[in-house]
């Protein structure tokens, strides 16, 4: 999938860093992860420290293949096995009962564990060379925008990471879909790279998606994926007027110009033309937010895409980017 192939020596070096209890930033098809040996509680503790993440927020454990599921989870329902077979490697995370290899430090004290097999040749090569599970949240500071290039990771975490594996820009661009697969009726805890429609096609029945406004699981906060600039969401046809009004009031406004308004002229500090294809939008989303921050915008005006397919995950991230900030 990815265009960049890491040298074998880099993979070996990264595996050695993990074995020594260090932190490796690794590319996945969704976003870059900040990885540690999932079975080393001290290494896992460093992930929380570097991210500034509360220790009760569970991490995703990345494994090399569905055949290892039994090592990392217990009482795996047939439905979960089906989903793993169909979507792994891929942007799907399954929440299951914690297996014996998973320390409580990685799950934030929960008796469940989130597992996924990433669809990226470098991540898979690392998992194979390392041999164990890699606990990895997105490689950004708590609450901020997830990184989709190695440069984003270096800019945000710098020397706090022992080794950065560069796998080029992430193909999917938004995080994995998280599914509670502990019971016979799976439900979506976080929309992401695998669409609800894809899941329903495999399951042969409708799937519950938890409301985005309720805190359902640790780590799902109203404010998340947030750039420095404040984000305001309005109807697509109001984006231009809202942006120009704020710009006149003295704001440095960044605009996400929706595809339906592509021909509009807008007087603002910076303009992002939102791609019409949801896949291209998802791939670019976090980079666009970072770019508007870099250009000095203090306000971003955007609208929500249609909430189907990847649009569901994009809308979820935009709502949280626009959510009330802890400091406000
Ligand atoms: O695409 C992704 O999922 C990326 C890449 C690196 O794999 N990872 C990622 O990790 O997004 P993170 O830590 O930013 O988000 C993981 C979320 C947590 O915030 C939490 O909501 C949920 O996964 N989670 C993890 N373990 C869980 C569990 N046992 N039960 C419920 N939710 C869990
Ligand atoms: Mg994250």
Automatic annotation (TrEMBL):
It comes from the Bacteria. GO terms for biological process: regulation of translational fidelity; tRNA processing. Signal peptide: none annotated. It is an enzyme of class 2 (transferase). Its EC number is 2.7.7.87. Residues 8-194 form the YrdC-like domain. L-threonine binds at residues 30, 62, 116, 136, 176. It is found in: Cytoplasm. One of its GO terms (molecular function) is tRNA binding. It catalyses: L-threonine + hydrogencarbonate + ATP = L-threonylcarbamoyladenylate + diphosphate + H2O. Its main location: cytoplasm. Pfam families: Sua5_C (PF03481), Sua5_yciO_yrdC (PF01300). ATP binds at residues 53, 112, 138, 146, 190, 225. The keyword Transcription does not apply. Keywords: ATP-binding, Cytoplasm, Nucleotide-binding, Nucleotidyltransferase, Transferase, tRNA processing. The keyword Cytoplasm applies. One of its GO terms (cellular component) is cytoplasm. Required for the formation of a threonylcarbamoyl group on adenosine at position 37 (t(6)A37) in tRNAs that read codons beginning with adenine. Belongs to the SUA5 family. NCBIfam families: L-threonylcarbamoyladenylate synthase (TIGR00057). This is Threonylcarbamoyl-AMP synthase. It comes from Microbispora cellulosiformans.
């Amino acid at each position: 999938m990815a265009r960049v192939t890491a040298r074998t020596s880099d993979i070996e070096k990264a595996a050695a860093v993990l074995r020594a209890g260090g932190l490796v930033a690794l590319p996945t098809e969704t976003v870059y992860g900040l990885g540690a040996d999932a079975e080393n509680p001290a290494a896992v503790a460093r992930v929380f420290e570097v991210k500034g993440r509360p220790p009760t927020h569970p991490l995703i454990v990345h494994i090399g293949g569905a055949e290892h599921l039994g090592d990392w989870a217990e009482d795996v329902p047939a439905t979960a096995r089906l989903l793993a077979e169909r979507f792994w490697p891929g942007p799907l995370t399954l929440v299951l009962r914690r297996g014996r290899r998973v320390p409580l430090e990685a799950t934030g004290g929960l008796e469940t564990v989130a597992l996924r097999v990433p669809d990226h040749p470098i991540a898979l090569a690392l998992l194979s060379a390392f041999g164990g599970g890699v606990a990895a949240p997105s490689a950004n500071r708590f609450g901020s925008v997830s990184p989709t290039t190695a440069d984003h990771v270096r800019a945000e975490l710098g020397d706090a990471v022992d080794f950065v594996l560069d796998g080029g820009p992430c193909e999917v661009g938004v995080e994995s879909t998280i599914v509670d697969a502990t019971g016979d009726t799976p439900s979506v805890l976080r929309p992401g790279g695998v669409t609800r429609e894809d899941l329903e096609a495999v399951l042969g029945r409708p799937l519950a998606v938890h409301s985005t406004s309720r805190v359902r699981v640790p780590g799902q906060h109203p404010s998340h994926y947030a750039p420095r600039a404040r984000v305001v969401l309005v109807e697509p046809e109001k984006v231009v007027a809202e942006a120009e009004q704020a710009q006149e009031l003295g704001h440095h406004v960044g605009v996400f110009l929706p595809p339906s308004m592509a021909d509009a002229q807008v007087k603002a500090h910076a303009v992002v033309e939102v791609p019409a294809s949801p896949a291209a939008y998802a791939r670019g989303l976090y980079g666009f937010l970072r770019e508007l921050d870099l250009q000095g915008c203090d306000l971003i005006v955007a609208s929500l895409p249609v909430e189907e397919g990847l649009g569901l995950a994009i809308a979820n991230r935009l709502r949280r980017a626009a959510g009330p900030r802890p400091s406000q």
